[in-house]
Amino acid sequence: MSLPPGFLDELRTRTSLTQVVGRKVMWDARKSNQGKGDMWSPCPFHQEKTASFHVDDRKGFYYCFGCHAKGDAISFVRETENVDFMEAIKILASEAGMTMPERDPQAQAKADKRTELADVMEIAVQHFRLQLKTAAGSAARDYLDRRGLKEATQERFEIGFAPDAWQGLWDHLKAKNIEDDLILGAGLAKPSTKGGKPYDTFRGRIMFPIRDARGRCIAFGGRAMDPNDNAKYLNSPETELFDKSRTLYNHGPAREAAGKGQPLIVAEGYMDVIALVEGGFGAAVAPLGTAVTETQLQMMWRVADEPVIALDGDTAGLRAAHRVIDLALPLLEAGKSLRFALMPEGKDPDDLIRAEGKAALQKLVDNAWPMVQLLWQRETEGRNFDSPERKAALDKALREKIMLIRDPSIRSHYGQAIKDMRWELFNPRRSSAKAPRRAGGKWQPPPASAMPSTKSSLLVAAGDDAQMHLRIGVILASLLATPEICTEFETAIEDLECPNPDHARLRDLILRHADAGADTLEAHISAELGEATLEKLQALPHVALAPPVRNPGNLEIARMTIAEELAKIDAERGLSAEVSEAAEDIAGVADEAVTWRLSQAAEARNRAIRSQQEDRAEYDLGANGARVNRGERERFGALLDKINYSKPRR
């Protein structure tokens, strides 16, 4: 029935949501403010003792902070009175003193037809239930017993049996004077192509009634008893009552169980749902023989914010999960997502519960994967990223998936999560490539260590160690002051060895969160390492005097400073490596080659500091303000003299 323009707006204006809800709840006097229409009570949709159900009378909406039920006066009446939309309108209009508009005769006839079809379906339910208890249903009963379905379970789900007869149900319905068009319109029979009587749609099958959220039987699912039947499972054809893309098996009971705090679990078929419910997971639903549709996904999200997809642990089940991800990405909203409980290979939820019990499935549900993790696995599992081209292909594929997300905030968080996992994959020496390193929900970078050549170098004295500490500190502080520059130096920073553990952890956090901006980056560092770490770094005189720190946000100054400091570190480490090897040669036979290698390394180092001018104190200042200890060259010269002196005479 169509309503005239403005009718619903006037109805909502005349209706007090507080009065409508007040018939079903007891208001909490301590939390409620009736003068402002701000009312609180225990939720009428799930069992609780605290007042978590909030009604905003001025806006005309309610919301439960426990089960997340929300809506307006119309939806409240629909849910609490178990009526459809038009019936809820009638109830509210009567209370508001409004006259319902005249019904469209065609719409009335259509509604009446749907009611008649639903009545025919109920007769069919009872017929199939009776047939299961006859001699013809003995094989079906044996099968249900082998599957562990007790009689109480069969009653709960109204499981029946359709004997292998062409007109068994047809004759039963005709004996009750039901018209042909209603039987055919309900999808219970099909017309004969040979001019004979219509024949039953379901024959030789165990029957599962499919009910809508209101509890009306709108279709059947039938499992074939004959193992050679072409269709193991068969659903009713689409009718005025039944659209399989808009229906979930066990929808109504699952919604009620989810309202009481149970997780919504999405399984593959009827038997999985029944096994889940009997195992204590009452909020279980299943699509009907097809991939999950957008409408079904929205239906799930109206029941729970994070449905758990529990598909079979085989290739087909994994493909189905991937299809759900592709469908869901554009539809994600804040707080609305999916998680995935991957069954052991070759098992479905029914198999797992019967073999290992409820606890095994509960563990999988508790540890269900977030959607982003399964997305990452799909793009990386079984692949080798040993070339820049392959890495670029991975980045492109993931970027294309992330761009499907319409919500900018969610898209940003997905980008960060993918970046985290990419870091794990391509930096195995700092983290496990098999799984994210997490403790208490936070990523924990592994400890970094100095290069072996650095540890063994004869030049790693107090002065050199401090000099390296200074340079790394300037680089990290420059990145903190201007995180936008991080992407230009990402590879070099990833390869930067930090002997100081605090520096190593700072480096990792900067790489992971630089995209979020300076303020967010500092917040992450403070949360992970404490505010003292930043204060300690920024209090060092050489860091405070660094040009990027004094000019935060200046990209050019930061670019020049970081590039020069990285170049100097490379030069110094090259010298350290040569000296380390030369020190080993001293113990054996040294020749001119040792001296030549040291002179070449020294020249490389000297080039890095040649342009620097002498400072008033014991430091030389570089063009960008970085300092180099003058004593290094003196110690190097002394070492070179020592090598020449100890060289064997010919």
Core attributes:
single chain, 650 residues, alpha+beta, DNA primase DNAg catalytic core, N-terminal domain, Dna Topoisomerase Vi A Subunit, Chain: A, domain 2, 5-stranded mixed beta sheet, 4-stranded antiparallel beta sheet, 9% strand, disordered C terminus
Structure write-up:
With 650 residues, the protein is of the alpha+beta class. It has 4 domains: 7-96, DNA Primase, Chain A; 105-242, DNA primase DNAg catalytic core, N-terminal domain, CATH 3.90.980.10; 245-426, Dna Topoisomerase Vi A Subunit, Chain: A, domain 2; 452-643, no CATH class. It contains 29 helices and 20 strands. The strands form 6 sheets. A 5-stranded mixed beta sheet has the order 12-11-13-14-15. The protein has a 4-stranded antiparallel beta sheet with strand order 1-2-3-4. Strands 5-8-9-10 form a 4-stranded antiparallel beta sheet, covered by helices on one side. Helix 3 packs across helix 4 (85-96) and helix 23 (518-529) packs across helix 24 (531-539). The longest helix is centred in the C-terminal third of the chain and has 32 residues, at 555-586. Mean pLDDT is 81; it is low at 431-463 and 611-650. It comes from Roseovarius aestuarii. InterPro entries: DNA_primase_core_N_sf, DNA_primase_DnaB-bd, DNA_primase_DnaG, DNA_primase_Znf_CHC2, DnaG_bac, DNAG_N, DnaG_primase, TOPRIM_DnaG_bac.
